[in-house]
Amino acid sequence: QLSLVQSGGGSVQPGGSLRLSCVGSGSTLASYSVAWFRQVPGQEREGISCKRTGDGTTVHYSDSVKGRFTISRDRATNTEYLQMNNLKPEDTAMYYCAASATRPILSACMSDRMYRNWGQGTQVTVSS
What we know:
This protein is mainly beta. The chain is 0% helix and 45% strand.
C-alpha cells in the first residue's frame, strides 16, 4: 500500500519560490498516476497538475499555475516534487499530493475523485 509524506511549504513573499516534496513508501511512485491539488478553506479542492502513468514525461497543468509550477520526479528516492516559481498571493492554500494506481482519462486527471492515496498536506502562504 502506497503511503505519501509531504514536506516543504511555508511562507514566502510574492514573486518567490518554494518546492514541495512528496515521498512515496510501500510502492513505487513511477507506477502511479500522480497529481497535486490545493485547497483554500471554504473552497473546493483545485487540481493543479497531474501526470498519468504510461504517459512518460507528459504533465498537465491547470491554467492558474501553467508556466510557473513544474513537476519532477526522482526515481531513486521515490519522490515527486512540485517546484513553484513566481508565487502570487492567490497561490496561498494547503497543498496535497495524491496518487492513483489507475490511469484516469485525461478529462478526469485533475479530479480528486480519481485518487485514493493522499499526502497529509502542507501549507503555502504567499504574502508581503
